[in-house]
Amino acid sequence: MKKEENNQNEIQELDEETLFIVSQTFKALSDPTRLRILHLLFQGEHSVNEIAEKLTLLQSTVSHQLRFLKNLRLVKFRREGTTFYYTHDDEHVLDLLKQSIEHALHH
Questions:
Q1: Which CATH number is 33-107's, of 3.40.50.1010, 3.40.50.10190, 1.10.10.10, 1.50.10.20?
Q2: Ramachandran angles phi, psi of 72, nearest 5°
């Protein structure tokens, strides 16, 4: 029992890189446009043009937001000719987003 108590009392400090990545992830999820894009991509793969059309956004806006999300490894892409197709790249963030949506819908 004594060993268990010690483990519970030891608080592991987060390193700077982890803190930065976590804060950037929450920053990404705090933007309504990025949330809309992620929600769409969690439903399946889409090209930049498809995302822009389905969400009624400018292609430049979509590209900018996808670059932000890609840098955080929240989305990934594949290239087919001159077209880039995006999909989600992190099941953890998918779970976090689903739980947040469920929380918001739960009255």
A1: 1.10.10.10
A2: -95, 5
